[in-house]
Amino acid sequence: MSASAAPRGNVVVREAHEEDGRIDAFVSRHPDATPFHLTAWTRAVERGCGQHARFMIAERDGEIVGYLPLTHVRSRLFGEALVSCGFAVGGGVLGEGVEPLAAAARAIGCPTVELRGGPLPAEWPCDEDTYIGFVRPLAKDDDAELLAIPRKQRAEVRKALASNLEVVTGGLTLADEHYRIYAESVRNLGTPVFPRALFRAALETMDADILTVRHDGRAVASVLSLYLNGTVYPYWGGGTEAARGLRANDRMYFALMAHARARGCTHFDFGRSKAGTGAAAFKKNWGFPGMPLRYAKWSSGPAREVNPLNPKYALMVRTWKKLPLPVASLLGPWISRGLG
């Protein structure tokens, strides 16, 4: 038998320790990778939220062929789970070995394991009705981008472009301003803000930046975006109460498209939204076709449930919206670090 026809070895799964560079090399080569697969993401979550990072790899003949990043989330309010990827909208198994990698995650002993995207274990309950993802190519220039936006939303963008709004981009120098805006935005939606340290860790260790829109010198909308393999991921974005009337969010996302093109990006990933919500309608109005996201969850008992649309959280959401912003910003990080 020739060397080229030699049989390939079996896949062996193990937990990786201090092999971040080797894992990231595998991630960077894989066409289905997202920023959330990078070890820097899970490390940022560990550093910013205090939740333990674990990395499972599948190897064949000493080479990584599959990978599962995990965040071990512990919370008195929301329970315990292994999540891939923690605090992300995507992740899950990358590459081969989905069944042995999933089995290895179960063997760790957490009551719940959640996989967000990627190939899913055959016997695990799968949810493809709750979340929708929105991705499309970027146009070649601003004029073409405007034409790619449906007529009604295009008119709003044109009005935003004609307004007296300033756009700035940067990194850590804009972090405090961005956090203030994001904290107000999520408080208004009834959800707790993530710890400030998570945002800073992402900015310091990943390909990420901030784009902020100002009116009369005051920031009214801001977004922290991640970048990987030619795709921009606007991930943590929001606006103040004044942003709606100023159309600052419209200006922000259109400016981000141009900014991403200048960085060499070819695709815009608008993230996920829950089906049937205003956020999903907003993204569709921008010309993004929605695609169902497939998540899987295994649990040894009652499954962990952190969806804010769950009726049992309705009172909590209504109450949170009414909290003074300083109080919400103080309490939010303590609560949100357990969401995963």
TrEMBL record:
GO MF entries: acyltransferase activity, transferring groups other than amino-acyl groups
PROSITE patterns for this protein: GNAT
Protein name (database record): FemAB family protein
N-acetyltransferase domain sequence ranges: 11-156
Protein source organism: Sphingomonas mucosissima
Record InterPro entries: Acyl_CoA_acyltransferase (IPR016181), BioF2-like_GNAT_dom (IPR038740), GNAT_dom (IPR000182), PEP-CTERM_FemAB-rel (IPR017469), PG_Glycine_Bridge_Synth (IPR050644)
A Pfam family: Acetyltransf_6
